[in-house]
Amino acid sequence: MDRARSRAPLLAAAAILLLAMASAPLAATSEPEENVDNASLQQPPVAPGLSFDFYRRSCPRAETIVRDFVKDAVRRDIGLAAGLLRLHFHDCFVQGCDASVLLDGSATGPGEQQAPPNLTLRPSAFKAINDIRDRLERECRGPVVSCSDILALAARDSVVFSGGPSYPVPLGRRDSAHFATPQDVLSGLPAPSSTVPGLLNVVRRIGLDEADLVALSGGHTIGLAHCSSFEDRLFPRPDPTISPSFLGQLKNTCPAKGVDRRRELDFRTPNRFDNKYYVNLVNREGLFVSDQDLFTNGATRNIVGRFAQSQKDFFRQFGVSMVKMGQINVLTGSQGQIRRNCSARNPGTVPWSDVLVEAAAESLGLF
Ligand code: HEM
Description:
Elements: H1 2-23, H2 62-76, H3 79-92, H4 123-139, H5 147-161, H6 182-188, H7 196-205, H8 210-217, E1 224-226, H9 244-253, E2 262-264, H10 276-282, H11 289-296, H12 301-309, H13 311-325, H14 352-363
Antiparallel strand pairs: 1-2
Helix pairs in contact: 2-4, 2-5, 3-4, 3-5, 4-5, 8-13, 10-12, 11-12, 12-13
């Protein structure tokens, strides 16, 4: 009896603690923040024509040169890490990882950069890729390393230098001489207003699945977004899935429609690549519909919950999914070209539109 009485305050304290834990926002994982070496984990197969030692003979220091550059540049401007990661994603989802997003428009039409989703890509990221390419050209005596490989490596190193996992990047991509149309960009890159069915529709077309979608969306653990990307959730009526305190924060940044300001994608740890993005989603603090719906929709909810609990699980899946994404529709062997300037096709390359005009003229018997 005495024993039971002496335990009573302890039990009461434990009950209060449990209640507090249940009602408090889900806290960050207690796991140590570590970089996961994915080399020992199950990685997707390497696409034919790519290999991990592609530049072993032609430019053995290629990876080191990219890493040193990114390390230095990200230390000076942490936003560049977000810019480089997003640039690789916008390259791969449209026409494959062929560096077509880097091509300036030409007389034949506007390039991919002129399409709405690409208007907010960071100019500093484009410049960094060209600067890395120049450095590689000097050190490797010529145009040896493709712009698409530079993009893939710079994205990986951006993740690492902002606190995320490392993963092995297969190399040997070649660059396209042709950019996609603005319509292709729009259909390849989902809008921030998309819900899970629409998102899955897009990613399945390019060989990715639910786990890839959830893990890759975790790229939103760093970087910024303009009010225009999420103001539809605030006006004329607030989206009821947004938690009241987060809604207050969003309205502070974007008090009316049309305000040109930016806010962090992950307000908990905006500059750190970690799993807090998922903690935000569980607490109804996702910035875009495309983020929050990953937790609302039953098809992806459990994966979000798992990544919110375990940073290690997130890091592991992120590495696998980035390798998958980085191999979408790659050009290899004698396809494409190694661009001498990442912003322009090599001189003498025939643009697509000319190829099409010639083919049409030929079929009409004009020559
Ligand atoms: C799944 C569908 C996705 C949608 C709808 C989406 C949409 C967006 C939008 C609208 C922005 C903000 C643009 C602005 O207002 O300036 C953004 C930023 C960003 N996205 Fe995504 N995104 C998606 C997937 C991804 C993926 C797969 C990655 C990388 C693996 C990624 C990485 C980023 C990063 C790092 C930023 C911040 C860029 C910066 O600060 O410059 N996103 N995204």
